[in-house]
């Protein structure tokens, strides 16, 4: 088995376990629910295997849904951000992404923050909109999106800094 496949499989399992055993039980002030599992989708290597990436994102979201009994909202949100990721990468990283030379450990920290912010906000908005599924509760959806996104972004940045490989 390839070393990188084993590494990503282990990351997948650890993120799912951390999410369902620890983070799903955090509900601060009724609006803050951190979703660290999105970091797997955000930092997955960029390559030409787009269908595989979409399938892995779907399986990740579906796994979280199964453990959370949430009816597919995580799968829908995960596939959505996986689908729009190339557009956001091009917006945030420009020519580095165009030439296929992007490595997340070598990119500008500010661009990485913008990238995280955009995709996490989109993920959370889709997640909470599908979870609530009522236009009358749009203010609640926006509140939950805003507060949970801020906490998730901070958690993703800290995690990516702590576990980045030093070169």
Tags for this model:
167 residues; Arp2/3 complex 21 kDa subunit ARPC3; 7 helices; Cell_shape_determining_MreD
How does this model look, in words?
InterPro entries: Cell_shape_determining_MreD. It comes from Bizionia argentinensis JUB59. The chain crosses the membrane at residues 12-44, 51-67, 73-93, 113-133, 145-163. The chain is mainly alpha-helical and 167 residues long. The protein has a single domain, classed as Orthogonal Bundle (Arp2/3 complex 21 kDa subunit ARPC3). The chain contains seven helices and no strands. It has helices spanning 3-21, 38-43, 50-68, 73-93, 95-98, 109-132, 138-162. The two termini are 25 Å apart.
Short account of what is shown:
With 167 residues, the protein is mainly alpha-helical. Helix content is 71%, strand content 0%.
The number of distinct structural domains comes to 1
Derived from helix and strand composition plus strand pairing, the structural class reads mainly alpha
Q: Could you say what the CATH topology is called?
A: Arp2/3 complex 21 kDa subunit ARPC3
Q: How many DSSP H or I helices? A: 7
Helix/strand order, N-terminal first: HHHHHHH
GO cellular component, one term: plasma membrane
Keywords: Cell membrane, Cell shape, Membrane, Transmembrane, Transmembrane helix
Organism: Bizionia argentinensis JUB59
Family: Belongs to the MreD family.
Reconstruct the topology from this structure.
Elements: H1 3-21, H2 38-43, H3 50-68, H4 73-93, H5 95-98, H6 109-132, H7 138-162
Helix pairs in contact: 1-3, 3-4, 4-6, 6-7
């Amino acid at each position: 088995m390839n070393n990188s496949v084993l590494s990503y499989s282990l990351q997948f399992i650890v993120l799912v376990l951390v999410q369902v055993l620890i983070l799903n039980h955090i509900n601060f002030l009724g609006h803050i629910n951190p979703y660290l599992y999105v970091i797997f989708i955000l930092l997955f290597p960029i390559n030409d295997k787009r269908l595989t990436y979409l399938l892995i994102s779907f399986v990740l979201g579906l796994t979280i849904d199964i453990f959370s009994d949430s009816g597919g909202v995580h799968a829908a949100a995960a596939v959505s951000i996986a689908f729009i990721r190339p557009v956001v990468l091009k917006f945030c990283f420009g020519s580095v992404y165009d030439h296929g030379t992007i490595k997340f450990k070598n990119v500008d920290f500010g661009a990485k923050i913008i990238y995280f912010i955009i995709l996490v906000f989109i993920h959370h908005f889709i997640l909470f909109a599908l979870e609530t599924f009522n236009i009358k509760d749009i203010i609640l959806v926006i509140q939950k999106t805003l507060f949970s996104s801020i906490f998730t972004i901070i958690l993703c940045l800290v995690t990516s800094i702590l576990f980045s490989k030093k070169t």
